[in-house]
Amino acid sequence: MRFKTNCILVLAILSLSALFLGCSSGASKEAGQEPGLDYPEKQVQITVPVAAGGGDDTVARLLAQHTQKVFGQPFFVVNRPGGAQTIGTAEVAKSTPDGYTLLSCPLGSIVLQGYYQDLPYAYTDLEPIAYVIERYFGLIVKNGKFNTLEDLVKYGKENPGKLKYGTIAVGGLPHLKTEEFLMQAGIEASGIGFSGTSEAIAAILGGHIDFALVGGAPLLTYQESGDTLTLAMASPERLSSLPETPTFQEQGYAIELNVWSGIFAPKGIPEPIADKLNEGINTILKDPAFAEKAQSTGEELSPMSRKEFKELVQKDYERLGKIVAETPAGEKVKAMMKK
Questions:
Q1: 333 and 316, same structural domain?
Q2: What is the crossing angle of helices 173-185 and 306-326, to 10°?
Q3: Are 88 and 254 in contact (CB under 8 A)?
Q4: pLDDT (0 to 100) of residue 15
């Protein structure tokens, strides 16, 4: 009996020793290991707050195609359109800040919508990770509808209120610039909001709207197919990809529109993971295969550090706030958003 009791005690002591040693080993490993050292250990979701097929969606998917090589794990895109890009943005802002849910979006989702409406997130709830691309926009129409910007303006003056335009993300920068153009041209048009560029272009081709400001891959793709015609580029000079298309400035309008898109994460993401993402994405941007594909669709690449990107977001937040508050176009769009 005594022998049996001693055996039980020995076994219990050995079990407890093994348990404590295991915990100690795990704790030591956890304490000594830098957070994010093994990141990513599974696939990463990139949320895009617009419908599939637009410029931002195209860039996010192109980026995702190159992540396996750099990060060792696949990144995949999920579209969450709606609410002028605020639905998908809010989902990411409220998600766990572990680096496995990211947001790919243009500046409007982050810095503009808060000036128009109460949102379930602030722009500071999202951590700027990597600046990805910049694109210029052009005014497109259905091929054969108007041949020049002057034709469109003339029609607008002869048919007050009959023109209709499309905008992606009501209240976004393209929306503001469209209203600015209408004011400079002295014409009126009613606006219709869409959840993605592809939907707006489909509406143009179907005759439901007359024009829209779009950028990136869709602008070039539909122009090359002959379905649409770009009447003016909102760029400081003509694009090499559209050398025959004049700028707004060449035609007497002070309209310039370039929009950046970047990668964001929920506030609170560990610094080592955020740094790793920035470095990896910048590596992809410098990859000739990625750069050639992106630039062929009218995108401009300019890798930035996290600090530089964060400063840009803050600067644009302040700059666009003044546009909304102090310009006639800003006041008009703000009034439209309240209806």
A1: no
A2: 40
A3: no
A4: 47
Same domain, yes or no: 89 and 153 = no
CB 133 within 8 A of CB 301: yes
Number of domains in the chain: 2
d(CA 55, CA 82): 16
Please check whether residues 85 and 112 belong to one and the same domain. Answer: yes
Could you tell me if residue 28 is inside a domain?
no
C-alpha distances (whole Å) from 108 to each of 50, 198, 232, 301 are: 12, 18, 22, 19
On whether both 250 and 275 belong to a single domain, the answer is no
Lowest mean pLDDT, pick from 38-52, 69-83, 293-307: 293-307
Q: Are residues 333 and 220 in the same domain?
A: yes
* Mean pLDDT calculated for residue range 70-95: 94
CA distances from 102 to 41, 261, 286 (A): 15, 13, 21
CB 18: neighbour CB atoms within 10 A? 10
Residue 194 lies in a domain: yes
Report the predicted TM-score, pTM, of the whole model to 2 decimal places: 0.80
Cα–Cα distance, 291 to 17 (Å, whole number): 57
Buried b (16+ CB within 10 A) or exposed e, 300-334: ebebbebeebeebbeebbeebeebbeeeebbebbb
Domain extent, residue 111, equals: 44-134+260-325
Buried b / exposed e along 58-81 (16+ C-beta atoms within 10 A): bbbbbbbbbbeebbeeebebebbb
